[in-house]
């Protein structure tokens, strides 16, 4: 009896040790924080759809907010919330901060606008450097293209801001996702009619741009349909695009996405 008890005890100990070893082999979770404007925010952008593509071992937090620029996101203390999260990152093997602005930094946005050279570029660089200083991994994302066509051709209204984002990423040695180039290529390939299906709601009538340059007019009446924000179909479409760019730029993050 004593021998059987000893054998059983050893067996249980081995099982427990094996279980502990297996648990220890599990990858430490990661965290992904999304920072940006309405094209990334809940209800109007792709951010929530991107978060939904991660497995449970990746905590994804969408802090993007509509109408924000590189300056107002900081002025409203929203960046301070990101810094607080970064200071409390011991539970994660890495915290990736995806940062995407541009739409509201353009001219015509009132106090939200920033100068492309002296404001927007340095602001993006500062976000990246502060992320690194707090132990995070900055990922700069060029702005999502507007779905505004002139005849059969998509109008590029955000090219300079996309290039400034690329320059800032290179300066800070940060990962860069060229969502702008990817979205332009995809939208041009599908054409206006199919691009319209990515909107929050279908057009009530033949869509007419409120501004010849494709830039939203401050104070103009809002419609459910527009050329900037995305509904469920658009969110899923661009979330997959960002996932492809992110896994190419940072291969180690690939296992944290669902198959």
UniProtKB/TrEMBL annotation:
Ranges of residues in domain SGNH hydrolase-type esterase: 35-184
Gene3D superfamilies: SGNH hydrolase (3.40.50.1110)
Coiled-coil boundaries: none
Molecular function terms, GO-annotated: hydrolase activity, acting on ester bonds
Record flagged with keyword Hydrolase: yes
Signal peptide per UniProt: 1-23
Keyword set, alphabetical order: Hydrolase, Signal
InterPro entries referenced in this protein's UniProt entry, alphabetically: RhgT-like, SGNH_hydro, SGNH_hydro_sf
Pfam families for the chain: Lipase_GDSL_2
The family this protein is said to belong to: Belongs to the 'GDSL' lipolytic enzyme family.
The protein's name: Hydrolase
UniProt organism field: Massilia cellulosiltytica
């Amino acid at each position: 009896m004593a021998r059987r008890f000893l054998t059983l005890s050893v067996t249980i100990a081995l099982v427990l040790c094996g279980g502990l070893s297996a648990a220890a082999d599990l990858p430490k979770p990661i965290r992904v924080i999304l920072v940006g404007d309405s094209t990334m925010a809940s209800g109007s952008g792709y951010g929530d759809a991107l978060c939904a593509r991660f497995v449970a071992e990746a905590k994804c937090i969408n802090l993007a907010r509509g109408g924000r620029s590189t300056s107002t996101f900081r002025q409203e203390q929203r960046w301070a919330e990101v810094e607080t999260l970064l200071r409390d990152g011991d539970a994660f093997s890495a915290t990736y901060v995806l940062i995407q602005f541009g739409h509201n930094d353009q001219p015509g946005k009132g106090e939200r606008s920033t100068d492309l050279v002296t404001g927007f570029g340095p602001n993006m660089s500062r976000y990246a450097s502060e992320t690194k200083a707090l132990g995070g991994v900055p990922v700069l994302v060029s702005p999502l293209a507007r779905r505004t066509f002139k005849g059969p051709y998509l109008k590029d209204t955000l090219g300079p801001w996309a290039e400034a984002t690329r320059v800032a990423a290179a300066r800070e040695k940060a990962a860069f996702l060229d969502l702008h180039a990817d979205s332009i290529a995809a939208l041009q390939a599908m054409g206006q009619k199919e691009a319209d299906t990515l909107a929050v709601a279908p057009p009530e009538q033949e869509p007419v741009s409120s501004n010849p340059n494709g830039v939203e007019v401050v104070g103009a009446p809002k419609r459910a349909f527009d050329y900037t924000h995305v509904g469920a179909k658009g969110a899923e479409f661009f979330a997959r695009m960002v996932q492809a760019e992110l896994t190419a730029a940072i291969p180690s993050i690939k296992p944290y996405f669902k198959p």
